[in-house]
Amino acid sequence: MSENVSIRPVVRNDYDQWLVLWEHYNASNGRSGERALDADITLMTWSRFFDAYEPMYALVAENNGRLVGLTHYIFHHSTTAIQPNCYLQDLFTSEAVQARGVGQALINGVFDAARRAGTSRVYWLTHESNLTAMQLYDKLAEKSGFVMYRMVI
Length: 153
Known about the structure:
The protein has helices at residues 15-28, 39-48, 102-116, 131-140; strands spanning 5-9, 56-63, 66-76, 85-93, 121-123. By secondary structure, the chain is α+β, with helices and mostly antiparallel strands. It has a five-stranded mixed β-sheet, with helices on both faces. It is globular and about 40 Å long. The termini are far apart.
């Protein structure tokens, strides 16, 4: 990874650069054009990062004053542990820094935040076609063996 990349919590002044990354992330997941997220969802997501009552957080990767990656994570309780779990919901790096360790640094940043919070587990999902990302994920964690089902209501 470039020595000029730092991982840090998002701050309010990051909005414009975060928004560009967020829109690219959503487009890469099929959420663009007619399928784009409603602007209200984006604004609510952004506001949750700064709401002390929300368990949602964001880290960004910064290189020479420019944001080049983001990750969002959520702490939540479960029925199988006393400590909260951490769900790494979103991870995205700009094309310019892909395969340069920025994704791994962002994931490690979530791991660090989870340790500080006393979390017993960090988990995430990826699409079965995301083979490039899975090469990294296989180095950092184990596959749980669970298959996700969902029903959009």
